[in-house]
Amino acid sequence: MNRRLWIAAALAIVAATPIVLLSVERNATAPVEIATAPAEAAGTKSAPAKVTLPAGTSAEDVYTKLTAEIEAQAKQAASAQSQDEQLRIFDAIGAKLEAFRAKYPKTPEALDATFQLGAMKSGMQQYDQAEKYLVEFIKAANATEDREKLAYAHFYLAEAYKSSGKYDAAEGEYKLIMKDYADVNPRLTSYAQNSLETLGSERMLAIGGEPIAFDVKSIRGERLSPSAYRGKVLLIDFWATWCGPCIAEMPNVKSVYAKFHPQGFEIVGISLDQSRDKLDKYIESQEIAWPQYFDGKWWNNDIAVRYGIKSIPSTILVDKKGKIRYKSLRGKQLENAVQELLNEKV
């Protein structure tokens, strides 16, 4: 295994959605589970900074030093105090990889940098950029020497296609992984298989469609059904108290709810917890006001299964007409989108 494959894993330290990436060890065969960095906050702009590459006698020498710098920056991102700070760090990492590609084009190291950029942009949920880098890598990669990275590049590309509503293209990538790369890693194959199985739900939950119907009782006995919230802006929030990124995002969700609930913003929480006691204690301690659905089935939560939920936090934002308008929003993006939909005339 290419020793540089740890870069993309390091880039995803600040994570949110579990995905699989190659192990950082040269001879390791098992993947590590990581999660994605936060999506770019709406309106967040980073001032361009001058990019300086390490000195070196060859592309390989410079790239070795560059990866060490990137590892340090990724660790810094993991301890960043704000999403904006994390994004600035990831932008700086991307700029260094781009500068390296420009200075040492058509080298094996530049190809590796292309792969890392694709993986990183996928982790940042910047799927249009991820698609560009991944397609470039797949076209230039050696089918034998880069086979392991190719398998993961196809997976990331499938995720990018899926997020953009290109479901047929995503289906083709998942099937390709299972057909041509099944021996690379069984967990990668399993992820591809699971993602393929949930594409039907993804198609039904495409932007502009309607949320899948359900009619259940909350933990307090309230009726929960997407159709009951017509005329309101509704966030369906899949989360759990054991999910670190969910808990990290909760203060923002509470802030948006407090600001916009009087104007017609509602939230339905779908808890993937197994312990009702832990859920109740957390809701009470955090003074969470919106209703929650709980059945104690963890990933087999009835509604989560119907929605094809494979990672959390996962959100669906529905407008006043009952149409899905946004998915997987966090931070400032969520606040801006809620305000936008509330301002729309029905």
Q: Please, could you describe this protein's structure?
A:
Helices cover 50% and strands 11% of the residues. The radius of gyration is 21 Å and the shape is globular. The chain is built from 13 helices and 9 strands. The protein folds into 2 domains: 3-197, Serine Threonine Protein Phosphatase 5, Tetratricopeptide repeat, CATH 1.25.40; 216-343, 3-Layer(aba) Sandwich (Glutaredoxin). The strands form 3 sheets. Strands 7-6-5-8-9 form a 5-stranded mixed beta sheet, covered by helices on one side. Strand 5, helix 10 and strand 6 (265-271) form a beta-alpha-beta unit. The protein has helices at 6-11, 59-78, 83-103, 108-123, 127-140, 147-163, 167-180, 186-197, 199-204, 244-260, 276-286, 302-306, 331-343, and strands at residues 18-21, 32-35, 216-217, 223-224, 233-239, 265-271, 292-294, 314-318, 324-327. Residues 1-46 have low confidence and may be disordered.
